Amino acid sequence: MKNGKGGRVKGVGEELHGQVRKGKPVSMSRSEMTEMVLPSETNPLGKLLGGHIMHLVDIVAAMAAHRHSNSLVMTVSVDYLDFRNSVSVGEIVILNSQVNRAFRTSMEIGVEVFSENYLTGKRTHTTSAYLTFVALDEHTGGPKEVPPLIVKTAEERRRFLGAGKRRKIRLANRFGKR
Ligand SMILES: CC(C)(COP(=O)(O)OP(=O)(O)OC[C@H]1O[C@@H](n2cnc3c(N)ncnc32)[C@H](O)[C@@H]1OP(=O)(O)O)[C@@H](O)C(=O)NCCC(=O)NCCS
Q: Is the separation of the CB atoms in 99 and 46 below 8 Å?
């Protein structure tokens, strides 16, 4: 990729690994899932079950991780989940995921969940989550290196920097360590 002056613009992921490897832009793995909320997925108040939202969050995050790494992946960590607004039966639930940062063998995936009332067209942000996935070698089953992430927009850069700070906290607290 060239910058405006004809020079080469490095993907941030390339700098992180200290060697030139082919990076992938965020757009190549961005994923979306859309579902109608059915009565079987709701609590007695007619609201989408938190556990069901967690399941969908894990799946849409896995899609982005699979696409970025072109590998088998496993969820290794989920940051806390806030449920800001409920999703009602009959509404449409929309989940968006993207790779925020690729490390050596792991990736932080950001997920945003929205509900949509199709009568009014109103979309409401209901949940945000960060998940860490590890890419696995299909032969050995062990962790495998992932491509660097190329960030292009100010928003992607903001998420990239935030992911570095969150990773430090996660690893410090790994397996309940404090
Ligand atoms: C995924 C797994 C194979 C990784 O094995 P491991 O021995 O932890 O391997 P490592 O210590 O080398 O860690 C691998 C990567 O995960 C990262 N990682 C491990 N634990 C983490 C945590 N709690 N938070 C964030 N990153 C973590 C490491 O930093 C490393 O990433 P990096 O290479 O980008 O720096 C192993 O932890 C596992 O099998 N966990 C169970 C996963 C599971 O069952 N998930 C639910 C079903 S998908």
A: no
At which residue do the structure tokens 């940051």 appear?
Answer: 79
> Domains in the chain and their CATH numbers?
22-176 (3.10.129.10)
Indicate if ligand 1 lies below 6 Å from the C-beta of 128: no
102 neighbors 13 (Cβ within 8 angstroms): yes
Residue 73 CA: nearest ligand 1 atom is 48
> With a 6 A CB cut-off, is 71 part of the ligand 1 pocket?
no
Rounded to the nearest integer, the mean pLDDT of the chain is 90
Per this entry, what is the length of the chain? 178
pTM: 0.89
Does 69 sit in the ligand 1 pocket, CB within 6 Å? Answer: no
**If you measure from the C-alpha of residue 106 to the centroid of ligand 1, how many angstroms do you get, rounded to a whole number?**
7
User: How many Å from the N-terminal Cα to the C-terminal Cα in the chain?
Assistant: 42
- Residues 106-144 have pLDDT tens digits of 999 999 999 999 999 999 999 999 999 999 999 999 999
Tell me the pLDDT band of 19, cut-offs 50, 70 and 90: low
